[in-house]
## 1
Amino acid sequence: MRALCVGGVIALLVCCAPLGACDLSGALDYMASRQESYVDELKEFVALPSVSGALDKFDSMRKTAEWVAVRLRKAGFQDISVLDTNGPCPAVLGTLSAQDPDALTVLFYGHYDVQPADPESDWSSPPFELRSHGGSVYGRGVSGNKGGVAAALQGLEAIARSGGLERLNVKVLIEGEKEILSPFFREFVSKHVSELSCDLALSLLGSQPSPTSPALTLGFRGAAAMDIRVSALARELRAGPLDGAVQNPAAALVAMLASLR
């Protein structure tokens, strides 16, 4: 888990250390003595079946949000809120304020909801029980995004407790709707613009190429679903000399699809 914790805060190091806004010198020592407890925390996190797409899991969504809020408080965050959206999955916002009035503000975004584990019979171990195998840990949501959230909170706690965030404001926003395409997130952000204001926003989603090589992901492709109807004429045109002069709806649709890169 040490590599995961370092990976969770590598973006903070890359973006803020050159500005003199944070100091990581004492964080690694802080984390070194807490590796076993970090794995235990992830085990608790994974055990919460926070499947946003399952109607019978909505109680678990709030319990998971409250777990994140408790973990933020443990990490030293002062202002922590479990905020309702227009859906059943609340978001969690925590703020860690610096003493410096000119401090930069960095916001970390992640999500606590996971994909369904069905059919559970295809799993070699119970999906909501963290298991270790071959030097890695397995469980539903470890890579998307509970491992990243847990590692980031542990890393931020280590930096803060070792005095490395005295010149940086940190906000953490963890939502519970990402796996269902965040249908209420736009309204939520619009409603809480002032609380979410920042100089830099970073996502906790992503991966790393190896246990000792963290990665800073520079972008993601999104997802979209739509119905498209292309028409050219009010009535069908028989094949003939006008074919080249009239736009062919099929050709127009092909050109549109080819532009989606």
## 2
Amino acid sequence: MAEHPSDRYHALVRRAAEDAAELERAYRQAVVSGEEAFFRQAVAAALQDGRRTPVLIAWGYRLDLLPLPAPAEKTRPDHQLAEPSRPWGIVLAISLGLGFLWTLMAGDRPPVPFPDTARPLFWLGWPPTTGLAILAYLALAGKPGVRERRWLMTAAVLVALAALAGGLAWNRTDDVAFLTALHLPLAIVLALGLGVTASADRPGAQWFPLLLKYAEVLLTAGVYVLAATFLGILTSGIFQVLGVNIPPEIVEKAAAFVWGTVPVLAVASVYDARALPAHQDLTQGPLRLLRLFARLALPAVAGVLAVYLIGFLPQHFWRGFEDRSLLFVYNLTIVTILGLMALAVPAAREAAAGFPWLRRGLALTTALTLLLNAYALAAALSRVWNFGLTPNRHAVIGWNVVTLVLLAAILYSQRRATDRDWPERFAAALVRFLPLVAAWVVWVLLASPLIW
């Protein structure tokens, strides 16, 4: 019986841990034979097991398995992550400027991203201005001289998206406007991702770590917003006790300013602008809590899905075809489960072989979610057949197709995976179809206002 490539490369890497020439020959052969992923996984496993020879450490840097130490920290051991420094003066200046800009854009209306409540300048303006502010932080706090042109090109893309979306949806408050309000931030996030990964030798390898950092930024921003809201409520209560009523207009302007300062602060708190996404620490901080929560929640999610699909759905099969609010719940559930699964996957520096139960749980959850996704797509298509195509149904069907493709790709990737390389195959399957996600986001953003 032929030896599996994964076992062959693990044995080779351990045998040649101090032989640079042999490892180089093995890597070149792996590239030619399409087995680069097995070589990379073998190096990661050797580093995880403590085989930190100078040759393997160099390969860890080359394959984005180890974070590069900052120049000032060269006296540290190579395998230790240097403490990231932040130019907090720049961060505070950008954050305060963005908060002031949010206040101006909100005007005399609430600072919320709803077209029927906020000014068009705010609900169309907050995503691109926030994106440009984050871009300014990344450019000013990053390594000097590292392809600054990419930041200018990314800024041009953000401005173009804002101009097109604003020109097509200005003063609209219908379903198309709400779709624009939902998809414009997604388009900005994807454009920022292109700018962040453009300087990497292998941009595709940066996207999965970047998605994880996005989740960490969202959690951090949520904590900041909750803390600011709590302090605001406490302050208002103190003034009310003193008999002073703060006018609602002042409260709205204060909320716009404070909330506007949060995005850049959240990014700066968890993302080192000097390093690529794959060089960030993916095992500590808020992301560690998110990973732990995702792994603990996975059995419950799989159990609920199994009970629903086996026990409830057969008895109420046609309810999803009749209740459109249920379709919204389905789609939100599917996207949430995809996010939980991505967070649960072991990081590059974790031993994948130590999570056999997690691999099986992810495969089961993916299969169950795929069934729910297929049912939701059938129900959405049925509503189009019976009631016609609307902007919301158009968007929902597209997202159902996108998530169906993602789930199918993830499930298929695990068929040939081993206990050592399954996290890498999971990440590769998800990243491979991110262009499909981006294409649908841009299509809904720009085509919906023209069609309806």
## 3
Amino acid sequence: MSATDRAVGLVNIAAEAAADKLAQEIVAYDVSDQLVITDAFVLCSAPNDRQVRSIVEEVEERLRDQGGVKPVRREGERDGRWVLLDYADIVVHIQHEEERGHYGLERLWKDCPQITLPEGTRGPARGSADEA
């Protein structure tokens, strides 16, 4: 079983929204074979709490306007270090770069297939000269 077309569409919307707010290292995994609760994870990071919040706002707005969905659950917004947006079909993790390095979600899902994202949505690598 693989992620539904709907989930992949939502992943693409979320990735494009995150990229527009200069999120770093945007990746998406098809976790449908591993989890029954969701089809895909989107991971991205930012160098500071303010940018994390900016990415969260943009992802929520785009998924609402273009995808017609609102999060069924939101966690971590108060601290601004790791915000989880659960849309049932997909879960978006927006992390401060320190949390991303510490928790290493990519290591947990490395055996899951990556979802190919639209051109230009991967974002700069952490610590690159392209950071804003």
## 4
Amino acid sequence: MNLESSNLMFAIDYTTANLTCGAQSFDGKSLHMLDPSGEVMNPYQEALTRLGRVLVEFDDDRSILVSGFGDAKTPENAVFSFTPENPMDGCKSFHEIWQRYHDLTPTIKLGDKPANLGPVIRHATAVAREVTGFHMLIILVSSQLATEHLADTAQATVDASMLPLSIIVIGMGDGPWVSWNLYCFFSAKLAHSLCRKT
């Protein structure tokens, strides 16, 4: 099980942090701003383009699960699928990921609560338990990890480490990203504690 034979998952941040985290890096515009002319890509489109075109070649079954989190409608402990008609079916191509992002994003109301990656990681963990093979979760997030979510996200990460699942977190926009250092510390400390108990 390796990168050459992997199941890809993307998770996209729809919190209101996207409205302000492009002050320096995206001319003060929302990180989810869609250019009507199609000439300017927002940071998410750019990330999906660069990652998708490369990594889609490593996805054997061409089923890429894409979800969103942090929006105003979805409960804080859940994610929403870009393919709601069949959540486990996923997008079949890079073009479909792009098109669904382009079509869905204008209809989504951003949520005003801090990003919580615990539910995102647990969703990916559930998929990894159900579907055989190596899995890669790529999370595109625009903000700091709130202090109240550190422990939950760290625990979800440690639980995920028991499965063939890699987690990659990519920051969108200006940052700052200090809390992610704390997240790494909490995760490592928790994992070390669990190892000592076993």
